[in-house]
Amino acid sequence: MDKILFIVPPHINFNDFINPSYNITTQQKKYGNYGNVSTDMPLGILSLSAYVKKLAAVETKLLDFNIVLNKMERFEFQSFAEFFRSYLSVPGWADPAPGIIGISALFTPSYRNVLDIARCCRDMFPVVDYA
What we know:
Layout: E1 2-8, H1 14-18, E2 26-29, E3 32-35, H2 43-55, E4 58-64, H3 65-71, H4 80-88, H5 91-94, E5 100-103, H6 111-124, E6 129-130
Parallel strand pairs: 1-4, 1-5, 5-6
Antiparallel strand pairs: 2-3
Helix pairs in contact: 4-6
């Protein structure tokens, strides 16, 4: 059975997350203040997942980095790219490797995060099809 991994990148850039300026809303965590990461229902990816599962024998997984960042009490990475690589290395995501990876972004601040995720995925899963 093929495995498809859908990824939603953070809706905030790294600097605004780590060192929020005065005009960025913050979220108080146990180990410091971080820029607030907005979350929303990823309807596009959920619709795609339901559609492909109806038409083909595939397993789909959804990874929303906005949710992951909101749940973290401490962020000890030097960049989002380092964080993405570390998170995607966990056996649940990396083993078995997905056959297809789709990355969906709705907001401009996600642009650099999409590029970082794509680089990480290409390095970690070199034979994957990217959508």
